[in-house]
Amino acid sequence: MNFGAEMKQFRVAKSVVINRSDDGFVAMNLMNKSAFAIDPPLFEVLAGIGDAAGVADLGERFPDYDVVELEEALAALEELGAVVALGSAQHEADRTLNARWLFGAPALGLHLMTRDMEFASAAESEDGQKARMAEEPPPRARLGLKDRAVIIDLPDPMADNELIALMAKRRTNRLPQATPIALEALADALFAGLGIVGETSNVTGALPLKMTPSGGARNPFEAYVVVRNVVGLAPGAYHYCGLAHALEPVNGDEPPALSALIADQDWADGMAAMIVLVAHFERTMWKYRDGNAYRVVLIEAGHIGQNIALAATRRNLTACPTAALSHSRIEKLLGVDDPLVAPIYALALGVPGQDPDVRVYSPTDRRIHLNL
Ligand SMILES: Cc1cc2nc3c(=O)[nH]c(=O)nc-3n(C[C@H](O)[C@H](O)[C@H](O)COP(=O)(O)O)c2cc1C
């Protein structure tokens, strides 16, 4: 008998969720993304653990089971992350995360299970789409007019509107030129996305205001820049302070290839810099304690990204957005080590090349769509 193991007390990890699968039930530990089939006896043992139990307690609760078997089952469950030993580092990490995470288990699942995913390459994705097209066409990308007899044709928005004309020029261009970008262009993009332009106040005191809206004015995002080819700025990773409108180096390390930070999308390697938006979920959680607030944070990234892209467009640059992030690699580079602080969205800035696939509509094209 191993008395050390017998004394060890276990608790079911709070980060474990149980899902139905085709062949039964699958338990997943959201923290380490481990998934394992769970059959009825194992279910019973997990449920039998209650607040905490060791082999001896389980032996009493399940007299039909052999103690050695129970010991082995617990060891296997610990290995899988289904149970944590009281006082262990895993127990502490599981306990603190679940005490701090206030958006609920479904949002925690989305947050943790979709990290560091493996994506198909562009060529694989194209092949997959071609194969799918052979089976069924993709859903229509936009609604047409239903009844052409009753339509109100609207004034031309591009006729005399510099803002809309600029917005219309924004494009994701994955054919970057190996040309440096100006520091002023990077500064514009950062300021447009996260620059602080004022403040408001409420019961909590002063709240920063920026050019993009923020759910509850909680401003969960910080921007970091990975610089490869910006005039006057050494390659490296920097944090942007929107209040001071200034950059500070994160570390003195040589930055990795940009593609290494976004799931090996190699078009990024020709880009001059990449802005990474990192969410500090606790800022929003402090006010909103429900799963919908996870959406609130993600939506804000879109607002910030759009402003960055428009500022880049005005400097004749492209800002390629991506949510296909290599989270762990980014976190390591930036020195971020907290499950409640996570990179969400990145925009790579560069000088665009000619994209033969893009055709720009004229007002006449729109009239053709109207069938006028
Ligand atoms: C949330 C989001 C994620 C995106 N992720 C990627 C990506 O991982 N890789 C990529 O090449 N483009 C990505 N894009 C860019 C889209 O492919 C692009 O916006 C789309 O093709 C339309 O082109 P446009 O941006 O020029 O209008 C993303 C766009 C959005 C909004």
What does this protein look like?
It is a single chain. This protein is of the alpha+beta class. Helix content is 36%, strand content 20%. The chain contains 13 helices and 13 strands. Strands 10-9-8-11-13-12 form a 6-stranded antiparallel beta sheet, sandwiched between helices. The chain has a 3-stranded antiparallel beta sheet with strand order 2-3-4. Flavin mononucleotide binds at residues 171-172, 174, 265, 321-324. Flavin mononucleotide (FMN) is lined by residues 171-172, 174, 265, 321-324.
**Distinct ligands:** flavin mononucleotide
Strand content: 15-25%
Query: Share of helix among residues?
Result: 25-40%
Distance between the termini: 87 Å
CA radius of gyration is 26 Å
Q: Give the spatial strand order of the biggest sheet.
A: 10-9-8-11-13-12
Outline:
The N and C termini lie far apart (87 Å). This protein is α+β, with helices and mostly antiparallel strands and 372 residues long. The chain has helices at residues 3-7, 40-49, 55-61, 67-80, 89-100, 105-113, 122-135, 162-169, 183-194, 281-285, 292-314, 327-334, 363-370, and strands spanning 10-12, 16-21, 24-29, 34-38, 83-85, 196-202, 205-210, 221-227, 236-241, 246-249, 273-280, 318-322, 341-350.
